[in-house]
């Protein structure tokens, strides 16, 4: 079966990272990231292309097509609504297939006024008000016509607040305030226009427009009807999502629809619904099947830190007790780093004063003896610093400050505590 090269652009936001996580382990796909601004994508993507012009630069398409040619890209995955709209509009000028719905659908989804106009006769459209309307019932909710991530939104409690908001925002919508439960509904529509999956999930603890807590939510007939109605009036292909919020009567009302990937689509991916992967295969004109585990799942996220150490080394010396084994348990972070070293051709040397039978302990912990290129098993009175070959480009990892201080002094190489292994791991 053909292997597909996929380019994620731009690649630094949470939804771009979700696409990467969803695709990177599939043997039929090679995934790369590209951006106009160097951000977290540079740290996360193994293959990263930076320095692109912005999409509205007159040279963008020419330079983008060069990247497509140089990297033999088959598919482009846009991750921002404006970028998705631009790529959909310029689909014929870009020399790779765009994983996105058609231009008309992307345009309607990008402008909320167009979305609400299309569905104005549906029960799930919130009550709207005009700025000149003197009979507005407060509070109301205002938001930009074109926007994302809750930017520029506000709850307005009076006419004076509304007037103040209107002085600072030109193109915006006024809707009834919706105090109830908020959902995102992740969907997949295949190339035949058939809505294949509907996945509601809660939006909780929202920061920076991102759900830091989300739980799968039962698919009710109300939500299913809304999803089907939206799918029937727009020409989706691949992944898409929409957001709902309950009014005071617990009726769901539409907030927005989008043709791009949502970062928290990762929730349903853990239940077997890999939206980015399904979208790639559908874009390749392949029939797909969905195997869905129907158990409840909860997602909770925090800010995640990645590092790039500007450090060259060809050998790692690493301690065993309280470094590879911590509190009688295997330190998975340490093992991940060691396997990374093996893949990169970096020599791994275990240096330890382990008091028991080391071979037996390794076996009990299911750690392969041959994971290590060399094992130095010291007596209690022997110094680790005396055993490190000084001319090598080496680093030393040990939980004990005393050991690190001696090695640093004797060998003049970088030394790391156990907690710093994270900065060495890709």
Automatic annotation (TrEMBL):
InterPro entries: ATP-grasp, HAD-like_sf. It comes from Pontibacter cellulosilyticus. Keywords: ATP-binding, Nucleotide-binding. Gene3D superfamilies: 3.40.50.20, ATP-grasp fold, B domain. This is ATP-grasp domain-containing protein. GO terms for molecular function: ATP binding; metal ion binding. It comes from the Bacteria. Residues 110-284 form the ATP-grasp domain. Pfam families: ATPgrasp_Ter. SUPFAM superfamilies: Glutathione synthetase ATP-binding domain-like (SSF56059), HAD-like (SSF56784). The lineage of its organism: Bacteria, Pseudomonadati, Bacteroidota, Cytophagia, Cytophagales.
């Amino acid at each position: 079966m053909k292997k597909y090269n996929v380019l994620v652009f731009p690649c630094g936001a949470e939804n771009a990272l979700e696409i990467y996580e969803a695709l990177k382990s599939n043997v039929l796909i090679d995934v790369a990231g590209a951006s106009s601004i160097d951000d977290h994508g540079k740290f996360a993507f193994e293959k990263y292309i930076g320095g692109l012009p912005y999409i509205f630069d007159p040279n963008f398409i020419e330079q983008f097509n060069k990247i497509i040619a140089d990297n033999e890209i088959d598919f482009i995955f846009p991750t921002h609504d404006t970028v998705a709209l631009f790529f959909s509009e310029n689909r014929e000028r870009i020399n790779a297939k765009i994983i996105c719905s058609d231009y008309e659908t992307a345009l309607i989804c990008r402008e909320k006024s167009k979305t609400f106009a299309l569905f104005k006769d549906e029960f799930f459209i919130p009550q709207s008000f005009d700025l000149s309307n003197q009979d507005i019932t407060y509070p109301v909710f205002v938001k930009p016509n074109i926007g994302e991530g809750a930017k520029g939104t506000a709850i307005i409690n009076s006419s004076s607040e509304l007037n103040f908001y209107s002085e600072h925002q030109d193109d915006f919508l006024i809707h009834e305030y919706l105090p109830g439960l908020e959902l995102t509904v992740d969907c997949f529509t295949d190339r035949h226009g058939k809505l294949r999956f509907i996945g509601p999930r809660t939006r909780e603890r929202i920061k920076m427009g991102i759900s830091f807590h989300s739980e799968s939510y039962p698919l009710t007939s109300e939500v299913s009807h809304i999803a089907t109605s939206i799918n029937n009036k727009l020409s989706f292909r691949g992944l898409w999502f929409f957001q709902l919020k309950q009014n005071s009567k617990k009726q769901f009302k539409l907030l927005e629809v989008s043709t791009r990937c949502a970062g928290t689509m990762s929730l349903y991916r853990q239940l077997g619904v890999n939206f980015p992967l399904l979208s790639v295969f559908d874009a390749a004109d392949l029939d797909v099947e969905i195997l869905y585990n129907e158990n409840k799942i909860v997602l909770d996220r925090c800010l995640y830190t990645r590092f790039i150490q500007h450090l060259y080394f060809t050998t790692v010396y690493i301690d065993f007790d309280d470094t590879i084994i911590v509190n009688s348990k295997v330190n998975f972070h340490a093992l991940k780093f060691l396997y990374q070293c093996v893949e990169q051709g970096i020599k791994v040397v275990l240096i330890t004063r382990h008091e028991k039978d080391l071979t037996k302990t390794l076996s009990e912990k299911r750690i392969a003896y041959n994971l290590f290129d060399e094992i130095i098993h010291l007596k209690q009175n022997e110094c680790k610093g005396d055993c490190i070959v000084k001319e090598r480009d080496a680093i030393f990892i040990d939980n004990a400050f005393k050991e690190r201080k001696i090695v640093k002094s004797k060998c003049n190489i970088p030394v790391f505590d156990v907690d710093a292994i994270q900065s060495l791991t890709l």
